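Lecture notes, continued. The same structure-token format from the folding unit now serves as the input rather than the output. Read the line below as a description of shape only.
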């Protein structure tokens, strides 16, 4: 079993930065892909970024490229999402997800991830 706990959300103004954290526990993650998704009210859950736990390869949604950066700390079993130049359209609940069967072709698909955190709210005011 895997447990994921997000933190770091909040209310900021456009142009500000936030760093989200996702602390993982319960089993080893050497073969897992860790992803961040977000969901705004009335919208479907949207892929933001993913990272392979072993090699650290990263994949970004076009909407966040150049503004968001994902990283991981293997020793702490924690994944970070540094969000810069935030926009009002980034407002959403942000979820951390993990799975060990994810491939490059499926990492943007929320229904392929078995493990999810509870989510953390990010609100960007204009």
């Amino acid at each position: 079993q895997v447990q994921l706990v997000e933190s770091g959300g909040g209310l900021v103004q456009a142009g500000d930065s936030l760093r989200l954290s996702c602390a993982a526990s319960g089993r080893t993650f050497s073969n897992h892909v860790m992803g961040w998704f977000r969901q705004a009210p009335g919208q479907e859950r949207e892929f933001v970024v993913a990272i392979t736990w072993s090699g650290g390869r990263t994949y970004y949604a076009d909407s966040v490229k150049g503004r968001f950066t994902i990283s991981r700390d293997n020793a702490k079993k924690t994944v970070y999402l540094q969000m810069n130049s935030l926009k009002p359209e980034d407002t959403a609940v942000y979820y951390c997800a993990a799975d060990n069967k994810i491939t490059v072709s499926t990492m943007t698909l929320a229904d392929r991830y078995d493990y999810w955190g509870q989510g953390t709210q990010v609100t960007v005011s204009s």
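Point for the exam: The mean pLDDT is 93.
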